[in-house]
Specification:
mainly alpha; ABC transporter involved in vitamin B12 uptake, BtuC; two-stranded antiparallel ribbon; two-stranded antiparallel sheet; 13 helices; 6 strands; 72% helix; globular
């Protein structure tokens, strides 16, 4: 974004808007998005929709953060992210099916245990799948975005067909652990239990990513490898091993988002990744491709806008986020928080 001023000779001078002012404008826009709907609906409904929007935003962040990490640290456009998302959902679904007694148990500890086991199983399985993908196909197309798009799109087709082979082509119902069901009634505001859990998971993942990237030696090495691969290799670090690890982490985040979203939506189906990948790309475009903080802000914007508009103008719910994306691109073509700025 640029601002205009008149010079001494009455000519128009343009200069970039300072980053601090951009942050202020972003906060102002998000605040307006957050508060304006209260005018058109009862306060209790507004609070219920806000919690639902934050939960949806955090789930979208879990998906979009993997896309941002892989692109921001590796400069790789991964269109197979949606398929990895679906694999995470199906691995978690299989764990739930095998431990249904714990899922249905009237015990918070057993419910948390089976949820944690399913979550870790999904992340580990899909991280291994991501590592294999990086070694066999992604590594061959570093630096070529067109080939990356084509080869990851082909990988998506293969991975989705493998889901149909292993789990079948039909939709399956995802069971919610017993303690996660139902709502809390707080002064007349209905709060879904699982939505609160989703918000907590999203905040924890964001904090963990920032901590690793900014406060650890591994994060420093990875960020240095993005800027200058040759220098990092000259210092004795295996840059390809690091990039394999980064891709595996991005795949694990896709699995985390897929499993959490499947419990949220109560279903799994082979093509579910393509549905949520569209939202994920809107999030990263709004927030800034390659920026984890941008993904968080973009996800919250998308989640809140979708839920508010779905209540007020249901037919426009799907279009509102596309409109937000267009407006952001017109004002800030690289997104609200572009990587490296």
């Amino acid at each position: 974004m640029r601002e205009c001023k008149r010079g001494e000779n009455n000519s128009v001078v343009t200069r970039p808007v300072p980053q601090n002012r951009l942050i202020q404008l972003t906060i102002g826009g998000v605040t307006a998005l957050f508060l304006l709907p209260v005018i058109a609906m009862p306060l209790r409904t507004y609070l219920t929709l806000t919690i639902a929007g934050l939960a949806m935003g955090m789930l979208l962040f879990l998906v979009a953060s993997g896309v941002s990490i892989i692109f921001g640290l590796m400069d790789v456009l991964n269109f197979a992210h949606g398929a990895l998302f679906a694999w995470g959902a199906y691995v978690g679904f299989s764990v739930f099916q095998g431990m249904m007694k714990w899922v249905e148990a009237d015990s918070v500890l057993e419910n948390l245990a089976v949820y944690g086991i399913a979550l870790v199983s999904a992340m580990v399985a899909v991280a291994l799948l991501g590592a294999i993908m990086e070694k066999t196909i992604i590594r061959r197309v570093y630096g070529n975005h067109l080939f990356q798009i084509l080869i990851t799109f082909g990988a998506t087709i293969v991975l989705v067909e493998l889901i149909r082979v292993f789990w079948g082509p039909n939709d399956e119902v995802m069971t919610v652990p017993f303690s996660f069901r139902g709502n809390w009634d707080v002064f007349g505001v209905i709060i879904d239990r699982y939505r609160v859990i989703c918000i907590i998971i999203g905040c924890m993942v964001y904090a963990a990513i920032q901590l690793i990237l900014r406060k650890t030696k591994l994060g420093t090495i990875v960020r240095a490898g993005v800027e200058n691969r040759e220098m990092v290799q000259a210092m004795g670090h295996n840059i390809f091993l690091l990039f394999t690890a980064v891709f595996a982490v991005g795949a694990a985040l896709a699995a985390l988002g897929g499993f959490a979203m499947s419990v949220f939506s109560l279903q799994v189906y082979p093509d579910m990744g393509s549905t949520y990948l569209l939202f994920a790309f809107i999030v990263v475009i709004v927030g800034g491709l390659g920026s984890v903080t941008g993904s968080l802000v973009g996800a919250v914007i998308v989640g809140l806008a979708y839920n508010y508009v779905a209540y007020l103008v249901p037919w426009a719910a799907a279009a509102v986020n596309v409109m937000i994306m267009i407006i952001v691109l017109l004002v800030k073509p690289k997104g609200l928080f572009p990587a490296g700025q």
